[in-house]
Each structure stands twice: as structure tokens, then as C-alpha cells.
Amino acid sequence: MTITATRTELDKHRELNTDHAAVKSVKARIAEAGVEYLYYQIVTLTGRVVGKVVPARHLMRNVENGIQAHPGVVADLQADSSGALVGGSPERGECVVLPDLDSFGVLPWDHRTGFFFCRMYEPDHAPDGAGGRPVPVDVRGNLHRTHAGFTERTGLVMRSGCEPEVSWRMPGLSTEHRPGTPHSMYHIGQMEQLRPVYQRVMEYGRALGLDMVESNCEDPGQLELNWAYDLAERTADRLILHRQICRQVAREMGATASFMPKPEDDKLGNGCHHNVSFWRGEHNVLADPDNPDLHLTETGKHALGGILTHAAAFTAVMAPTVNSYKRYCHTGQFAPLEINWGMDNKTCAVRLPASGRLEVKSPDSLVNPYLSHAVLLAAAEDGLTQGIDPGPPRRAGTEPLPGPFGSLPLTLKEALDLFAGDRAVTRGLGPEMADMFLRLKTLEWERFCGAVTDWERMMYDGDGC
């Protein structure tokens, strides 16, 4: 009897990486650019980019065998109060990190260096039959699997575009706004002060495949530089690249690029609105091509209903830091609070700015795009499956009264409690990643609660108390 071994997901990825045409294309691009070093990159739960650098001459070895990494890096090697690693014991074996060849790029600021985004797998020798399986806490791999499952069950794919806002500080740049004077939103004079920044960020973005489109300045020192929408996985990769670009430009210019969601009390927050649409082939199911008015199809309403239903619970993912909730607390600054929707209404949590796309406004500038897109897929699928009604849109000029979907949480702790109790949202991440996310972010909240801040010193220390 002949026993045929089952092909694992690791085997399938290796087969893709040894495809002759794909390898030939990457080798040609490496040779053309003069690349000598390659970053093999993975993304952590908090959106940090980690990995290893390898001389490019070892390409084929790494294409087939990957690199090795401990899964604890996904949780930033953070330890809890007992000293235990959130990402697993040091005795746990390392993972195989395999590059996706179609993610290859060359750093536009140093053509000797290229990179791949990677996915993580258990090694062939892993115990208990786990050999070759995807590592469940790999955020990038999870989004690929979640999107594929969504498409298999619904026949739809999600396309998205992000609106990342970044606060810049640099010599000679005025970021002050005097009350009563004209605001700097869309002000070309403010854009001119930031011209060296936006030109270089756009230049590097174009070189890395970001189709840069309309961009603007919304607050003194704040830039929102946008690129064209695409499949959710590609948009997530590009948002990570955009942050890497901004940090590099900051280094080159002696500037600081802050992704802090609420960097100053009196300034607008840094959001990262997600514009999503759902497609069957080349047809956008959110829009009826025969209806010229601003509208949302029944299918679109059900997807929206799911997003609104789970918006409070997935806020922990969309606003993943202690600082994130200060952006919601400052009302009147375009950040949402009530969970509602409206037709081109900037006060709403979800806005329909044009027929065919939904703008989800809760994500901020430190969002992990692989997690945010995964939970949006899970929420939308629940709405499609259950036929959830989002209710009528909020009319302009009316008070945003509390509705059936409630309000967004106002602290990270409240958001984490809601996240833990929502099966649809946690299903988007899978049980192991949802558990690790909860542990990591609960640890962040506990450390914050134990920290003494400048605000406390101002309020309670000295003669003023």
C-alpha cells in the first residue's frame, strides 16, 4: 500500500515560491536594481515591522526554507507581571517565516536593499500533527485566510482604501493655531510648509507601488496622504509601507512623524478612516448603476448593519491604544461617538460619501490594518448572513440621539471587555490571536493604570492641591 502524505499549507507556499516564472521575475528585479540585502518582514499585533536581513545571494535558500523566528515576536516579546512571555514560552519552537514573492519591493532610499512581506508556519517537525500549519497569531496570514473564507462563503471580496493622518514636527514648521483665526484645514500655505515632506513621501510611495491620489493638510503640521483603493490585503501591506516611508522621511529631514491618535489636547486627532466596498467579480454590490442618487443597496445595508452591530466590540482593534480614546472624547472634532450612519455626514461613525463605498471612521493612525480588515470582514459577513437592518441614516441637522447600536467605548478597558464578549468579532481573528490580543492590550491598560502622569502631577502635587 502506498501512503500519500497530505500537502500542508507550508508545502503549498513552498511550491508557489519555487514557481520558475515567479522566481525568474524576482531575480531579474533584484539584479536590475542592484539589490544586495533583503529584509524578510513580519508584522506584529501592534503593527510593528520585525524580521531579519539576509544577503540577496541566499535568495533561493530563503525562498524555499524561509527564515526562523520565535512566535513571541508577534506580541513584541512583551512579558506579563509574572515574567511570562505573552507570545509563548521560550521553550516553544521557532516558526518558519516564508516570503510572498509578489510582495517584493526595493527601498527607494537605498536600492541596495529590498524586502518581502512574509507569512508564518509551524515547522515540518512540529509536534501533535501541527507541522506545516499556519501560525494562528500571524496577523498577515490571518487576513489572507479570513478574506479567502469570506469569499468562499459569500462570493464577495472586500476592497478598501485608508486615509492615514500623521502629525509632523520639524524645524521651521509652525503648528500653532490661535483661537479665532482661520483654521489651516486645506490651507495651501500650510501645505507649502510641508512641501518637502509630502513630495518625498509621495515619491517613495509611488516607487513602492502606492498610486498616490488627492491629499491634504487638516490641522497644523498634520498630513493625510492617500493612495488608490485595492484588495484588502494589498491595502494593509501598503499602509504598513506608508508608515515605514514616513519614518524614513522623518529620519532624512530631522523631523518627527507621530502616529499618536491624539497627540495634543487642542489638536485634531490622527485618524485612519477605512473606506470599504464589496465586489462580486467586477460588480460593486453596494451600488446600483441605474440609480444616480446617493444610495446603498439592500446587500450593502445588510453589510452595514453587521458593521454597526459589532462596531462597539471591534473598537478595541480600531482604536488599540490608551491614547486612542482621547480622540473620541473631544467631541466636535470629526471623530465619531454615537454608532450610526449617514449619507455624506461627517458626524457619523459610518459615512456613505459616495454610492459604492462605506467610510468607517473609528480606526485611528495606530490601527493594525491586518486586524482591522479581518474584523470588518467578520462583522460584514454577520450582517449579510443575518440580514441585519442598519436602520435609517441620520438626517443632517438633527441631534445624534442614541440608537440601537449604542455609543463607542471611551476607554481601552471598556473596549477590551466588549471585544472579549463578541463572538463574531473574535472569530475574525481566531481564538488564539484574539486571546493574545486581549492579553497584550490588557497588560498595556494595567501598565497605564499604574503610571503617574504629568496631568496627575499638575492636579494633585504642590500648592494647587
Automatic annotation (TrEMBL):
One of its GO terms (molecular function) is glutamine synthetase activity. One of its GO terms (biological process) is glutamine biosynthetic process. Transmembrane segments: none annotated. Residues 139-465 form the GS catalytic domain. The keyword Ligase applies. Keywords: Ligase. SUPFAM superfamilies: Glutamine synthetase, N-terminal domain, Glutamine synthetase/guanido kinase. Belongs to the glutamine synthetase family. This is Glutamine synthetase. The lineage of its organism: Bacteria, Bacillati, Actinomycetota, Actinomycetes, Kitasatosporales.
